[in-house]
């Protein structure tokens, strides 16, 4: 689903449609047209957000790129979860990942994606992949599709020093949110943060407190 919440998460590409956050909701037989979410803040205030639901299974990968719906890419890949987990043929997932990678690189070369936007998107895709594979025999092959790209620009040093920290933060946020969605307890999420995001216990605990409330 999409929201016009005014709550910025990561920087989204300039051509991305006018919304600020994407929330993945569980698939159900009777899909509602809208979703309402109430956010409660430490000072006691609550804010309600209402948004139209978007059914990603009706979107093609070509449509996502054409309309610059970049935040949908990781969730599009999640449609292959059963095949990836069960060890079935993953050729379709590989083909779609290669398509998105090549299109993102093309858009970067055409200056429609900045260095940081490209790296963020690839990082989020790999976070979804590592969550789905959970260390199985497909993980390395799928992660390498996005992770094998090296971008050399004038801002390379900045990317290495600053953007890497942003990627870790974004990856940690997704891991915590997915862990909560899956009903994991704090210890399980902390373990996943350390194993999947390479965080120390102290940093993992800080991210859990930040995103797990």
Outline the fold blueprint.
Layout: E1 2-3, E2 21-22, E3 34-40, E4 46-52, H1 61-66, H2 73-77, H3 81-86, H4 91-109, H5 115-133, H6 139-147, H7 156-181, H8 186-196, H9 201-211
Antiparallel strand pairs: 1-2, 3-4
Helix pairs in contact: 5-6, 5-7, 7-8, 7-9, 8-9
Helicity level, as a percent range? 40-55%
Main sheet: strand order: 1-2
Shape: globular
- Largest sheet at a glance? 2 strands, antiparallel
The ordered string of helix (H) and strand (E) elements is EEEEHHHHHHHHH
**Helical run tally:** 9
Average pLDDT rating: 75
How far from one another are the termini?
Answer: 21 Å
Strand content: 5-15%
Q: How large, in whole angstroms, is the Cα Rg?
A: 17 Å
- Uncertain segments are 1-12, 14-20, 148-159
Oligomer classification: single chain
The counted number of beta strands is 4
Which structural class matches the secondary elements?
A: mainly alpha
In short:
With 213 residues, the protein is mostly helical. It has nine helices and four strands.
